[in-house]
Write a structure and sequence with these properties.
By secondary structure, the protein is α/β, with parallel strands linked by helices. It has two domains: 132 residues, N-(1-d-carboxylethyl)-l-norvaline Dehydrogenase, domain 2 (Orthogonal Bundle); 144 residues, NAD(P)-binding Rossmann-like Domain (Rossmann fold). The chain is 43% helix and 10% strand. It is built from ten helices and eight strands. Helix 8 links the parallel strand 4 and strand 5. The relative contact order is 0.10.
Length: 301
């Protein structure tokens, strides 16, 4: 009986499920589950009864497919960036096709959390065990990991450094980076496999001083990061003396900041936006050098 709860929406997903999947070995058990779940599916959504292996695979397949969509849009964003297209506009045109839709097709830093990484790797391992190479699942995982590295390379390149195989000079020595968002997604305090952790650890390893803020995940972040980063309880305190701001989670709190306050607190006027929260023309008007995902770079001045 796999669950399909999204972190941040678990209660609503439980009370109003899209579907209920139950793996059974005899019909009498199936009837008991139908009676158990009847109050939750009176909106017309179905209860699927099937064999146990198939029920287990439904969960793996669903999460693997959603992870695939995220890696797909990120790969397209990288191509847009290389050829001067705007992924936000491309996404609008593509997702208006009713066969495609817009769910889970938002460019950014890739997926994290406990489900997508675990279930994608599980499909890879199941394929290896069965002698069937799960090439697509492997590519999805690789693209997701690479997306964080690509974004980090933008940060180091801006500060005159370089990264890559064998290390190199990152140009981050002595720089202060502010991070808005540490949870892997908004409306949860879950930091497992969060892109922010990867970026903070990389930056710290190259000599940067990292200060982070998250609306609900600060306690978990402090326990996980220890001395690697300072975690503060105010989004603006995070910015004091920062050479750059890195946005790693798309919390609503970050979507309409007080730009005058931001500029007065920061040492540098540079934003690395891993969630495409802001319009390019807004960043130009505010005088920031602005890096996002799949869009043109805005240069200050």
């Amino acid at each position: 009986n796999p669950e399909f709860l999204k972190e941040g929406d678990a209660i609503n997903d439980f009370n109003k499920p899209d579907r209920v999947v139950v793996g059974i070995e005899d019909e009498s058990v199936g009837q008991a589950f139908k009676e158990l779940y009847d109050p939750f599916v009176r909106n017309g959504h179905p209860i699927y009864l099937m064999d146990v292996p198939s029920a287990e695979m439904v969960k793996y397949c669903a999460n693997n497919f959603l992870a695939t969509k995220i890696s797909f849009i990120n790969e397209m964003a990288n191509l847009c960036e290389a050829y001067g297209a705007d992924i936000n506009r491309v996404r609008e045109g593509m997702c208006s096709d009713k066969r495609i839709g817009s769910a889970f097709l938002y460019p950014g830093l890739g997926y994290g959390g406990s489900c997508f990484p675990k279930d994608t790797i599980a499909c890879i391992m199941m394929g290896d065990k069965a002698g069937i190479e799960a090439k697509l699942s492997k590519a999805v995982h690789e693209v997701n990991q690479r997306q964080r590295d690509r974004f980090f390379d933008k940060i180091t390149a801006h500060f005159g450094g370089k990264t890559g195989v064998g290390g190199g000079v990152a140009g981050l020595q002595g720089k202060k980076l502010a991070f808005w968002g540490i949870a892997f997604k908004p409306r949860t305090d879950d930091i497992r496999e969060a892109p922010a952790l990867t970026l903070i650890r990389k930056a710290s390893g190259y000599g940067a001083s990292c200060v982070g803020f998250d609306p609900v995940a600060n306690e978990n972040a402090r326990a996980e990061l220890g001395p690697t980063a300072t975690v503060v309880d105010d989004m603006y305190e995070c910015l004091k003396g920062a050479d750059a701001l890195v946005i790693s989670t798309d919390w609503d709190e970050f979507k309409s900041p007080d730009w005058d306050k931001v500029k007065s607190l920061m040492k540098g006027k540079v934003i690395f936006d891993g969630r495409n929260l802001y319009r390019l023309d807004t960043m130009k008007q505010q005088g920031f050098t602005y890096y996002s995902v799949g869009r043109a770079i805005v240069k200050a001045g």
